[in-house]
Structures are given as C-alpha cells and as structure tokens.
Design a protein that fits this description.
Layout (H helix, E strand, L loop, with lengths): L1 E5 L4 H12 L3 E6 L8 H9 L4 E4 L5 H10 L4 E4 L6 H6 L1 H22 L3 E7 L22 H19 L4 E7 L1 E3 L18 H9 L6 E4 L11 E2 L1 E3 H17 L2 E7 L5 E2 H12 L5 E4 L14 H7 L7 H14 L6
Parallel strand pairs: 1-2, 1-4, 2-3, 4-5, 5-6, 6-11, 7-10, 8-13
Antiparallel strand pairs: 9-12
Helix pairs in contact: 1-2, 1-8, 3-5, 5-6, 7-11, 9-11
The structure holds nicotinamide-adenine-dinucleotide and uridine-diphosphate-N-acetylglucosamine (UD1).
C-alpha cells in the first residue's frame, strides 16, 4: 500500500517514514526541502532497509501534486509539510497562512481529484491556547494565541467540513504535545536551523559546547520546582501513533482530533537533571525571566488515542534524553 507523506524529510516525518517502511508500506515523500535536507533519505533507507520515493515538491504546486498522484495510487496521505516557528508566524503571518493553509488546500484539492480519501494531519496542542487546564482533553476549548496555531486550527476545520461534505472522506488530526528525541540508531533526528528555540535541541547544543549555557525561562511558576511543565513525547512514539491512526481510518468515518502526549508533565529542571544523569554530562544553566507567551503547565489527557486505536507512549524521559544526545553527538552538524 502506498502512502503519500508530505514533509517526509523533516524531523517528525523522517521518523514516521522509517516506521511506515518497516511496517511494509510504500512511502512517497513530497517535500520542498525548505527546512530539511535530502541527505536524510539515505539515512531512512539505511535504517528501514528500503528507500522511500522522493519528490522535491512544494505542496502548493497543484500541477506537481496532480502528476504525483497520477503516478502513485496512494491509499492515504500523512500531511507533515508546514512551517512551525511561533515567533516567525507573529512577524510574518502571510508566510504561515500561505504555506500552511494554502498548501493544505492544494493538497486536499489534489486528493479529491485523485480520489484519495484518507488523511492524517499534523496538528498541535497549540490549538488549545493558554487558558486550557491540564490534563487537556480534546473537548477543551480551542483558542490559539498566534498565527501558527490558527493555521493548524483552520486546517482542522477544513478537514472537518470535507468529512461532512463527502462521507467517504476521513481525517484524523493528531494534536502533538512536545515531540523530542531521535531514532535510537542516532542516524536521524531534529535539525533546527540557527539557534534552537525549543528546550531539548537547546540543551543538546549546550551539551555539545555549541552554546554556552541554558537559560531556564521562569523559576516562579506555580509548579513543584517553580519551572514550567510540559508533556514531552518521544518522536518514535509519535511516529507509531501515525501508523495506528492510518489503521483507525480504515474503520472510522468522519473527522477526529486526537491528542498524542504521554499524559505526564515534566518540568524544565526535571528534564535538565534527567539529561545530565543519563548522559553523564553537566549542562551549564541559569535561571532567567519567564518567556513571554509561555504557559505554566501544559500536558495531555491521552486517553482518547488509547481508546480509539490502542496507542500509548512506550518511551520515557530517559529514552528521550539519551536518544536526543546520541543524535547530537554523532551528528554535530546534523545532515551537513
Ligand atoms: P520540520 O520543519 O522538520 O518538517 C516539516 C517539513 O515540511 C520540512 O521538511 C519542510 O521542508 C517541509 N515543508 C514545509 N513547507 C512545505 C511546503 N509548502 N511544501 C512541501 N514541503 C514543505 O517540522 P517537524 O517538527 O517535523 O513538524 C512536522 C509537522 O508537525 C508540522 O506541520 C508542524 O507544524 C507539526 N508539529 C510539530 C511540532 C514540533 O514540536 N516539532 C509540534 C506540533 C506540531
Ligand atoms: C513551543 C511552541 C509550540 C510548539 C512547540 C513545538 C511557544 C509559545 N510554543 O512549545 O507552539 O508547538 O514549541 O515543540 O513558542 N525553555 C527554557 N529555555 C529554553 C527553551 C525553552 O527554559 O532555552 C522552556 C520553555 O519556557 C518551556 C519549555 O522549556 O517552559 C519547553 O519549551 P519549548 O521546547 O520551546 O516548547 P513549548 O514552549 O512548550
């Protein structure tokens, strides 16, 4: 069975491609390489023992998509392609609405023309906004606070409408919490351009001596140790969730939005200490002011994914820290 994976050379997409290939799917990637490297393709093949088919293609390219879907009779699409930097989305909202919303519209239109009826979409916990009380269930109010989050919610709503208009069209939006870690081989992982914004890649670059110290944003949150709490989820657990969502689409009509998180909250200091312990390395750090826009506590209620398709996160914080550091250590310049 062939699956179209948009954004398949990116961080989460590359890990999902490995799992899809290992499960026996034929994988067709469409990625414009705007935030990834074609070098990942050989790594995917090395891990999975089989290569994905790759098209350097922007999902806004309607004609390119049409030709791709004509050549490859895919059963379903997993849609990772998109831009994802919150601050950049505030500074340049049109880039986000164009890339994410127009890109999704072009993809869904091409799928409709080709008769492809199953979609798994990369959404984000960011659709819940700042007021949501953790553990956050899928019925919580959606109120994204930045353009990036609004693109994710808009795309979810487009999918919801498509499922109503065409009873054969089915979609799952997976709302990821905080994906971290890397494949255990150390061959693929997260490759942020420039200085990372997110916690785990930042810690890795401090550990590697590329950055002098970690700033812990906020020490006076109403949490046990005063630092902010998030739901970190291993990227391989996340990848596995996509395969289970594909299976679920075989038996579930309509649209569903489903959290992928562990249900466990972890503070910044806890992750720092775990990283130091499992990797036997000291991370210079200092306490700093809160980062504007951050919430104190955000973690998932992951029960729906368990109920609907039997998904549970299997890997813990120690695995996340060990695998993230192995990837960083073995690839100091990522795919360069
Ligand atoms: P990533 O940047 O590593 O991967 C996205 C991929 O999409 C890249 O390879 C990029 O080149 C490609 N791409 C972007 N725009 C494209 C376009 N118009 N046409 C074709 N390809 C395009 O990001 P990621 O972390 O792997 O995230 C994957 C998806 O998951 C994104 O949609 C993101 O919004 C979502 N998500 C990520 C996180 C996270 O923390 N990483 C959290 C929640 C949701
Ligand atoms: C951020 C985005 C979210 C996106 C997610 C992708 C914001 C407000 N939210 O989530 O939309 O889906 O990334 O994974 O940008 N921290 C430090 N020092 C650092 C970096 C981070 O202390 O150098 C802290 C943060 O304050 C936060 C925690 O670590 O409490 C996690 O931060 P991060 O990895 O950036 O993820 P989120 O902010 O949860």
């Amino acid at each position: 069975m062939q699956i179209l994976v948009t954004g398949g050379t990116g961080y989460i997409g590359s890990h999902a491609c490995v799992e899809l290939l290992r499960a026996g799917y034929e994988v067709v990637i469409a990625d414009n390489l705007s935030n990834s490297s074609a070098a990942v393709l050989e790594r995917i093949e090395r891990i999975a023992g089989r290569a994905p088919v790759f098209y350097k293609l922007d999902v806004r390219d309607a004609e390119g998509l049409r030709l791709l879907l004509k050549r490859h009779p895919v059963k379903a699409a997993i849609h990772f392609a998109g831009v994802k930097a919150v601050a950049e989305s505030v500074a340049d909202p049109l880039k986000y609405y164009d890339n994410n919303v127009n890109g999704s519209l072009a993809l869904f239109t091409a799928m409709r023309a080709a008769g492809v009826k199953h979609m798994v979409f990369s959404s984000s916990a960011t659709v819940y906004g700042a007021q949501a009380v953790s553990p956050i269930g899928e019925q919580a109010v959606t109120a994204p606070v930045n353009p990036y989050g609004r693109t994710k919610l808009m795309i979810e709503e487009i999918l919801r409408d498509l499922c109503i208009a065409d009873p054969e069209f089915r979609a799952v939006a997976l709302r990821y919490f905080n994906p971290v870690g890397a494949h255990a081989s150390g061959l693929i992982g997260e490759a942020p351009q420039g200085t990372p914004n997110n916690l785990m890649p930042y810690i890795c670059q401090v550990a590697a001596g590329k950055l002098p110290e970690l700033q812990v944003f906020g020490k006076d949150y109403p949490t046990p140790d005063g630092t902010a709490v998030r739901d970190y989820i291993h990227v391989m657990d996340l990848a596995q969730g996509h395969l289970q969502a594909l299976d679920y689409l075989e038996r579930a009509p309509g649209f569903s939005a489903i959290n992928l998180g562990t249900g466990r909250g972890t503070s910044v200091l806890e992750i720092l200490q775990t990283f130091e312990r499992v990797n036997q390395i000291t991370i210079p750090h200092r306490m700093a002011a809160r980062r504007p826009g951050d919430t104190a506590v955000t973690y998932a209620d992951p029960r729906l994914a368990a109920e609907l398709f039997g998904w549970h996160a299997a890997l813990g914080l120690a695995d996340m820290c060990r695998d993230a550091w192995r990837w960083q250590r073995q690839n100091p310049d990522a795919y360069a």
